[in-house]
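Extended Data, panel c. Modelled sequence:
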Amino acid sequence: MKLPSSHIVVTGAAGGIGKALAHRFHAGGARLTLTDRNEAHLTEVCAELNALRPDSAVFFVADIGTQQGNLDLIAFARQSFGPIDLFFANAGVGLGADLLSEPAAWENSFNINVHAHRWAAEALMPEWLELGSGYFCSTASAAGLLAQIGSGPYSVTKHAAVAFAEWLSITYHDRGIRVSCLCPQGVNTNMLNPPGGDTGGFASAGDVVKLAGAVLEPEDVAEEVVQAIQEERFLILPHDEVVTYMTTRATQHERWLRGMRRLQSRVIKTATGQ
């Protein structure tokens, strides 16, 4: 896919990976429709882009954890810049911890991390199939290929996000639809380093990724994303070590499980200062 003059929608665009994606796509010549629940930060991002190239970006405040939020966003995007060439379902949440987490943590995680992808794809697919082209990208996580120590809702929903992206690619590739799935490990965002230290039950995420590999900047991830989209590559892995972990998981599953338990013990010791 080529970026110049394309129309790209990015969810979760007010900060972190979403903001970096918006700036990188914009630098490549795309027109942007951005969404998030944080109106103040979203307004700032949109203003930054339009200062560089007037009338090249619009924003729409939406709760993509609902089907109507996705429908309203897509209708607004089409009204603003016409057909959507690339939809990047980037918004995500890291909620809850173990099986004793509040039911709302599981429900909200599925709505935002999984169902939002389905709702968007359902709304986009008829037009894309008629045109014979379209590109759907989603941000999952290395946790969706491996597992997440600490947060059950996060680990399970990110696996589901990867599975949904794979299914889309298998089902619609031969009809002109392209799909990519971003699976980073540690990225320097508010999800990894929550403001004020409030992890919302996702307490060990920072410790886990710092023990498991490098922490990248969002801009580094965005650069890898653009390269993958230009190559129309399905799996986007900014962290090289994830491939090694995936290989071990696939070929030596018991060993991998033992390793994850050891990592969990190290995380607990680090968190408790033992």
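The two ends are 50 Å apart (CA to CA). This feature is highlighted in the accompanying rendering.
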